[in-house]
Amino acid sequence: MSTTEPGLISGFQDLVAQVPDLLQPVIVALAGAVPFVEGEGGAAIGIIGGLPPVVAAVSAAIGNFLCVLVVVLVSSRVRTAVTSRVGRRGDADAPSDAPSPRREKFQRAYHRYGTPGVSLLGPLLLPTQFTAAALVGTGVPARRVLQWQGLAIVLWTTAVTLIITGVIRFVA
Questions:
Q1: pLDDT at 5
Q2: Are 168 and 13 in contact (CB under 8 A)?
Q3: What residues form the membrane-spanning segments (predicted)?
């Protein structure tokens, strides 16, 4: 899980504590949709804000996944539009710029670990939204990206939820 602005997290925690109980999972889902906060951070915010761990985890994971879904659908449409335009113009008009160092690094990771590995290990380095867009941009089918990103979101959110819950029980 990446770090983010401390004020953002405390702001979400304060908001969770101040809104009616029925809206608290919605706030956690919104937090889960934020890049770098993600499902893991959203679950932690919800748990620390007073939600039951399962409710916090499910809400945060749903928020994270819905955001990734939107990113994948938009990225897929953009890729289709760009590739069909380049195909109509012919290869002579296709961009020939060398890939950026970041793109090369992503390509190496993708060739080494594939979609499952990049999806499952990606949250250690990048938000799931960025990883999903990069996967779709390289031509991985949207359905496959969503399956692996969904699994990664569930696994990472569950792991962090269990850790946070264990730490709170240990400290309390």
A1: 58
A2: no
A3: 54-75, 113-136, 148-171
> What's the rounded Cα separation, in Å, for the pair 69 and 10?
26
Neighbouring C-beta atoms of residue 42, cutoff 10 Å: 33
Q: Which residue is it, tokens 């089918």?
A: 141
Q: How far is CA 5 from the centre of its chain?
A: 17
- Is 1 inside a domain boundary? no
CA distance 69 to 63: 10
Q: Which residue segment(s) compose the domain that 47 sits in?
A: 6-171
Q: How many domains does the chain have?
A: 1
- 59 to 73, 137, 142, 161: CA distances (angstroms): 21, 28, 23, 12
